[in-house]
């Protein structure tokens, strides 16, 4: 009868795997573990200086569901580690990482009401730039387009990019080349992050794209209070 040794071995392997997982999960959840990969290191360095420095990597990049943990953490995480150990990781300037909009909205759901608040009551810094655009309308439009767009379509650099041209915060892309002082990102020509940084509002507001049967307006007044526009776009 040799089933007992086999059962003991199997039990030992399962117990060891559970114990190893119990130690590995907290370790791999820590931002410094992510930063151990040279591809992620620049993102870590920008994160520790950002307004989200108290929010861990997994809080944004792993959806807080069983499905999210399996797909975003277990499967994609294992693949990333395998590429790091045995393959050729992408360069930091070609890094593409997704953040599900529902993760953003778990903290920022109030953003849906920005366009419903009187301008005098808008919170800073949107009050300073007179931003009255409807985030809800944009999210509904993104959903209708079905191209996987969401919060990071406009706010991709808010954590991992630096403020530009003296702005006090990282502003959504689309406001980086509208004034008389041109700005270009420091990423290499042709890289994913450079292309992302240079994308602007006109990717949709191009005078051709339609939503609900109407061509999207290209004018700044579509989203901003007119008297605030010059102060918002010019660097002082």
Automatic annotation (TrEMBL):
Alphabetical keyword list: Electron transport, Heme, Iron, Metal-binding, Signal, Transport
GO molecular function: metal ion binding
Gene3D superfamilies in alphabetical order: Di-heme elbow motif domain (1.10.3820.10)
Keyword Oxidoreductase applies: no
SUPFAM superfamilies (alphabetical): Multiheme cytochromes
Cytochrome c7-like domain ranges (all copies): 133-224
Chief location bin: other
Domain (NapC/NirT cytochrome c N-terminal) ranges: 7-96
Protein known as: Putative Cytochrome c-type protein
């Amino acid at each position: 009868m040799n089933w007992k040794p086999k059962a003991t071995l199997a039990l030992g392997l399962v117990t060891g795997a559970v114990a190893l997982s119990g130690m590995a999960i907290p370790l791999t959840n820590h931002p410094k573990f992510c930063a151990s990969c040279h591809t992620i290191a620049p993102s870590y360095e920008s994160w520790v200086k950002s307004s989200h420095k108290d929010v861990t990597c997994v809080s944004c990049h792993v959806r807080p569901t069983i499905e999210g943990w399996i797909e975003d953490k277990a499967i994609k995480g294992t693949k990333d580690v395998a590429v790091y150990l045995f393959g050729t990781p992408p360069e930091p300037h070609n890094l593409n990482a997704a953040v599900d909009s529902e993760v953003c909205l778990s903290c920022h759901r109030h953003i849906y009401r920005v366009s419903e608040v009187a301008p005098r009551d808008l919170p800073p810094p949107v009050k300073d730039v007179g931003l009255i655009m409807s985030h809800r309308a944009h999210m509904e439009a993104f959903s209708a387009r079905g191209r996987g767009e969401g919060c990071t379509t406009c706010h991709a650099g808010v954590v991992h990019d630096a403020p530009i041209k003296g702005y006090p915060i990282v502003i959504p892309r689309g406001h980086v080349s509208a004034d008389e002082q041109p700005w270009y990102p420091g990423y290499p020509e042709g890289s994913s992050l450079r292309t992302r940084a240079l994308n602007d509002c006109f990717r949709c507001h191009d005078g051709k794209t339609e939503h609900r049967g109407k061509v999207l307006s290209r004018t700044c007044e579509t989203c901003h209070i007119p008297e605030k526009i010059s102060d918002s776009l010019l660097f002082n």
